[in-house]
Specification:
The protein has one domain. The protein has five helices and two strands. The chain has helices at 27-36, 43-57, 64-68, 75-81, 86-94, and strands spanning 2-6, 9-13.
C-alpha cells in the first residue's frame, strides 16, 4: 500500500491509485484525481460520483449498465463524462475500490 497526497491530505492508495479507505475522500481530492485522469469535473460528474459512492456503501456490484440505468446519465453519456474506461475512472475519482467488473 502506498500513500499519496491530494489537496493537502495524505491518503492510502493501491498500486493503481484507488483509495483504500473511502472515508478519506472529499470533493477536493476528487478534483485532483480527476486532473490526473485529464477530466475537469462538472455537476454531472459529481452526480455520477455520488451515486457510485452511495451504491458502494450499500454493497452493490457496480457495473456500467447499472450507472446507465440510474437515471443520471445513459451509458453513452457515462463514456463521454469519463472517456477511456468510464467505470474505472469514475470509481477512482469517487474514492472507492476498483469494481470487480473492471479488468
Amino acid at each position: 500500500m502506498a500513500t499519496k497526497s491530494y489537496a493537502g491530505n495524505n491518503v492510502d492508495v493501491t498500486e493503481e491509485g484507488y483509495l483504500t479507505d473511502p472515508s478519506q475522500w472529499n470533493q477536493d481530492i476528487a478534483k485532483e484525481i480527476a486532473k490526473e485522469e485529464g477530466i475537469e469535473l462538472t455537476e454531472k460528474h459529481f452526480e455520477v460520483i455520488q451515486y457510485l459512492r452511495e451504491q458502494y456503501a450499500k454493497g452493490a456490484n457496480l457495473t456500467i449498465r447499472m450507472v446507465g440505468k440510474s437515471g443520471i446519465t445513459d451509458v453513452k453519456g457515462l463514456y463521454e463524462l469519463f472517456p477511456g474506461g468510464p467505470l474505472k475512472k469514475s470509481s477512482r475519482i469517487a474514492g472507492i475500490p476498483k469494481p470487480t467488473s473492471c479488468v
